[in-house]
Design a protein that fits this description.
MORN repeat-containing protein 5; 14-stranded antiparallel β-sheet; mainly beta; single chain; about 190 residues; Histone H3 K4-specific methyltransferase SET7/9 N-terminal domain; MORN; 2 helices; about 55% strand; repeat
Length: about 190
Amino acid sequence: VKIMYPDGFHVHNYPSGSRYEGHWKGGRKHGHGTYIYAGGGKYVGDFSDDKRHGKGCYSYPDGDVYEGEFRFGRREGSGKYKYAKGECYEGEWQADRMHGKGRYTYSTGKVYDGMWAEDRPHGEGRLIDGNNVYEMSYQNGTVTRQQLKKDQQQPGSSGGVVDAFTWLQQAVSCQPVGPCMDKRSDWRK
């Protein structure tokens, strides 16, 4: 529905309870503005032809916040999504989904830095968990390969990537059957 305001800045209150304060062009939101949704969300940023388009910040009612690029009403391009629970994704977006190169920081402190497709890790990346760095491969969010970078875990190593299970066997001198204990140290000390 076209709202016929002259081009320029205007405030419009919608029957739904939503409110737009910003620029209009040809009866449509166009330019910089603030849209406050009746459900509690809020968008501050650029509009084009009545859609979020350009740079902007969308605050969700649950406390999540997306700040970045929009195209034709969707998150698209580069942006940062901060979850109210403390997690964060910063990277590329396509069609409202995490897609392309991105970095996800979990509330536990773990960080996945790599490729994404359709909101899931997909392709190659690194998982940083404390002092451990893992080279990862994902297929639609499922781990297909996980290797601990030896040079990131053991000081003075020759470097390179080894299989995480092989590294664990070497570190504690045990075989893959039954419980094992580090034979190089007395665990009771």
